[in-house]
Design goal:
- This protein is an all-alpha fold.
- Helices cover 67% and strands 0% of the residues.
- It has helices spanning 3-19, 24-50.
- The radius of gyration is 21 Å and the shape is rod-shaped.
Length: 66
Amino acid sequence: MDIDVLIARINELARKKKETGLTAEETIERDELRAVYLGNIRRNFRQQLDTIEWVEDAEEGTQGKR
C-alpha cells in the first residue's frame, strides 16, 4: 500500500472518530493500518542504522585533551 494512501486513510479514520465515532470494523481497520505504518517506520529506521559505519579516532587517547 502506498504510504500516502495509508496516512490519508488513518487520518480520515481519526477525524471520523472525533466527529461521530468508529464502528467495530473501522476500529479494527485503523489498528491494522497503524501497525503497517509503524512497521514501515521501524523497517526504514533499521535500514538507516544498518548503513552507519563506526569510525575510530585516528589518534586514540587524545579525545577530550587539548
